[in-house]
Amino acid sequence: MVKNRKPIIAGNWKMYKTASEALTFVRELQSAVSGNEDVEVVVCPPFNALVPVVEALRGIGIAVGAQNVHWEEQGAFTGEISPGMLKDAGCRYVIIGHSERRQFFGETDANVNRKVKAVLQHDLTPVMCVGELLSEREDGITEKVVRDQIEAGLEGLTPGQVAGMVIAYEPVWAIGTGKTASDADAQQVIGFIRGLVSKLFGEETAAQVRIQYGGSVKPQNTASLMAQPDIDGALVGGASLDVESFTGIIKAAAGN
């Protein structure tokens, strides 16, 4: 079956790059991927760089995403940022439920669901992350863990909302470790996710939702991952911090 979903390559910069460093990066990236129409490209800078990066990329065809959000529109939540603020800054995407948020900051499946609903209300696109720990994979419960995260994260959504969002499968043991799930392993879990979406929201929704792989993605392994029938892109961490490597991933995803 030929995939008709446009690949999406998103760079999660985590807590790296000052605003000036971010501007230098996106100007170089813009030149490197000029003319690209085959892959949707997203960069997710830290909050301090969102507005200048949005301005630098205006009309360029590279979207900007945020790395986190609070589910409330406003309030006494020191250090948080609201969906409306991200929308006003010019963001189009928001990463929600990244394993580092779950591991270090107590993100729960219930809060992921609140955040997904909140950003959808502002016409932002959630990139909802799911994935198992190494111990969970070794215990053979990967599908149970991912099922629980998917069911809780998507609870209360409509088929149309799910069809338009992005799901990122990131095995926690592969993030920042240099270890990558094999193409077959990644496809197996992502195929499972698509099948689960089909059961919950229907075949049409499952055929439309884009599902990324994340976890030590590099230019060298992108093409083989993207060749899998259910993998629609990558959520890239460390390799997205270097223009040459990120460009290599984008071009590999485009088949160049």
Describe what you observe in this structure.
This protein is an alpha/beta fold. It has a single domain, classed as Aldolase class I (TIM Barrel, Alpha-Beta Barrel), CATH 3.20.20.70. The protein has twelve helices and eight strands. Strands 7-6-5-4-3-2-1-8 form an eight-stranded parallel beta sheet. Helix 7 (142-153) crosses helix 9. The protein is globular and about 45 Å long.
Question: What is this structure's SSE topology?
Answer:
Blueprint: E1 8-12, H1 19-32, E2 40-44, H2 50-57, E3 62-66, H3 83-89, E4 93-96, H4 99-105, H5 109-121, E5 125-130, H6 134-138, H7 142-153, H8 159-164, E6 166-169, H9 183-201, H10 203-208, E7 210-213, H11 219-226, E8 233-236, H12 243-253
Parallel strand pairs: 1-2, 1-8, 2-3, 3-4, 4-5, 5-6, 6-7
Helix pairs in contact: 1-2, 1-12, 5-7, 7-9, 11-12
Features:
single chain, 256 residues, alpha/beta, TIM Barrel, 8-stranded parallel sheet, 12 helices, 8 strands
- CATH classification class: Alpha Beta
CATH homologous superfamily label: Aldolase class I
Structural class: alpha/beta
Low-pLDDT parts are none
Summarize the main sheet.
8 strands, parallel
Task: Please give the alpha-carbon distance between the first and last residues.
Answer: 21 Å
| Integer tally of domains | 1
